[in-house]
Amino acid sequence: MDVQALYRSKLCTPEEAVRLVKDGDWVDYSQGMSFPAALDRALAARRDQLRDIKVRSAISLAPVQVVEQDPEGKTFTYVPWHCSAQDRKYVDRGRAFYTPMLFRHCGRYYERGYAKVDVAMVTVGPMDRHGCFNFGLTNCAQREVLEAAERIVLEVNPHMPYVVGLEGDSIHVSQVDRIVENDAPLAHPAPVRVSEIDRRIAANIFPYLRDGITLQLGIGGMPNALGSLIAESDLKDLGMHTELMSDGYLTLYQAGKITNAKKELWRGKGLFGICSGSQELYDLLDRNSGILSAPMRTVNDPAVIRQFQNFVSINGCIAFDLYGQVCSETAGLRHISGTGGQLDFVTGAFEAENGKAFLAVASTHTDKNGVRRSNILPRFTQGDVITTPRAQAPYLVTEYGVANLSGLATWQRAEAVIGLAHPDFREGLIRAAEEQKIWRQSSKR
Q1: N or C: which end of the chain has fewer CB within 10 A?
Q2: Residues 392 and 350 sit within 8 Å (Cβ to Cβ)
Q3: So which residues are the catalytic ones?
């Protein structure tokens, strides 16, 4: 097979490629850095030629043109699996509609036909001499997306790093319908600001870490602060097993803290599902056989996670209540992010020998009117989506401490959670606990 001739026969402009899209189609951009910027612009330009086009994606780092160029949603409906700050703006405007999911099941939705794909459009790296295109920074459910698709268009970008995959990391030129080329630089998330509260929360978690643990870190100021603490510490031989690799891990690799030498699975190799970060992080991944991409059905599977004897999962949340219920997706009815892999890792970490899962949040926030509000609530009643149920509540963390809720009765939970609240709100929470019949009269005040 002459793969170069086959490549040339399928090469076309973005405008030509998007003619594959027909009325009523579901178009899938996969997730994260697979976003096809040139194809998105070309598809948006067909706004007046098409009707009822649904576009599925997740974690967009730049404006999505099928939304921007169709502000009233007459042609395009945008459907993210997980929301970035950019996607959240579209949800706020009624121009995007979140799809609930567990990350470990994402690929199965495609395999079982729950997530229909008429046309898949994804960004990949350049074709190798064997005719294969590497998926680069997005493994996730990319293979399942492409296998479910009726028609496949690849957007080839030379800036996409070549990332070695455990599996599901490439597609052959013979399997695609159209190829376009785009030399634009890849997107990068905005730099994350680390606050003093982030540092205090990180300092509360740090004593629970040990040499040789396998670590899953979320994204944000607190994980970055914790990464800096670890980098400056005496900890050694940490492992990486994470759904999303970000710059927090870059710091740890650069400091020599992650060796993956003590991992029970894939010893010597760090695993991730998707990656988003700085150019320096992308450069670290390029042709690095010590860091592997893997599908979410592997990375996020509790049956896999439980095989790590010393697994530690650390993620953020939005709020929790006196019962130990955790919300990480919405603020009342306002959608913020998504379920993602939080429950996957909470489940897997608990089942792992010596495993621990931490969910962290600042004790308060300031609303748009300048009023300080508690992130520890008496109960959820305003439409907040429960991400982690109380029966699986792990270690909860604020700048005021850490509380392990496993095995605690309701009054014990209330007492522990109130100890994490800002002092100005504790008396009010005690009164609420009394009214809710979850406060023991002999409990301390």
Answers
A1: C
A2: yes
A3: 243
